[in-house]
UniProtKB/TrEMBL annotation:
The keyword Mitochondrion does not apply. It comes from Halalkalibacter wakoensis JCM 9140. SUPFAM superfamilies: Ribonuclease H-like. This is Exonuclease domain-containing protein. PANTHER family: DNA POLYMERASE III SUBUNIT EPSILON (PTHR30231:SF41). One of its GO terms (cellular component) is cytosol. Signal peptide: none annotated. Transmembrane segments: none annotated. Residues 25-197 form the Exonuclease domain.
Length: 219
């Protein structure tokens, strides 16, 4: 397939492995879609993100954008997310939304992305970009599921709200991209403190716990 020049290069810096986690800036993000078949007929309809600095959620530094999927939104998705065909009628394209998301990352100088079941969100971005014949360099990504698996191997649930409840994390509006990003960000910060109690303080520790080898989505 012919590829155009990469859309934008996300901030790529050589972070020393001994960097304390408290010195890192993270972008916690989430997407909403018309369904799970994002490699076929389903499309992104919203993307949201928030920054984490010094192991604290920066609620003043958020990003949210609806996306026009160029297809009807199923009734059950509207009931779940509150996003209707009217909501996205004049919304930006997925390409415009992803570019704005990358600009948000560059503005805040974040080079690490975090998500809950982040492989799905990365796949959403990949497929949307492929439809426009674009690609980008994806930075290091951290999945909260990997951190939970390290801290509590017996927990096998995938649902964000269940995990947040078990860890005593504040829960925001569910199935809204920004709301889920905020919930994930607070859960991520809670997990970082638990990791610290296990003697995990550095960027290297975080990478060691994160099972990046299984995340083989090539951009």
């Amino acid at each position: 397939m012919f590829w155009k020049t990469p859309l934008l290069s996300v901030t790529k810096t050589e972070t020393p492995l001994n960097t304390p986690i408290s010195d890192l800036t993270f972008t916690v993000f989430d997407t909403e879609t018309t369904g799970f078949a994002v490699g076929a007929q389903d499309r992104m309809i919203e993307i949201g993100a928030v920054q984490v600095k010094n192991k604290e959620v920066q609620e003043a530094e958020t990003f949210q954008m609806h996306v026009n999927p160029n297809r009807n939104i199923p009734k059950e998705i509207t009931e779940l997310t509150g996003i209707s065909n009217e909501t996205i009628e004049h919304a930006p394209t997925s390409l415009e939304a992803i570019q704005s998301f990358i600009d948000f990352n560059k503005k805040t100088n974040s080079a690490i992305w975090v998500g809950h079941y982040v492989s799905f969100d990365l796949l959403v971005l990949k497929k949307e970009l492929q439809r426009h014949q674009y690609r980008i360099e994806i930075p290091t990504t951290i999945d909260t599921l990997d951190l939970i698996g390290y801290l509590s191997p017996s927990k096998i649930m995938h649902d964000l709200e269940n995990y947040a409840s078990q860890f005593g994390t504040r829960i925001y509006s569910r199935h809204e991209a920004l709301g889920d990003a905020l919930t994930t960000a607070h859960l991520f910060c809670d997990l970082l403190y638990h990791l610290e109690n296990r003697g995990k303080y550095t960027y290297a520790d975080l990478l060691d716990i994160s099972d990046l080898s299984k995340r083989n989505i090539q951009f």
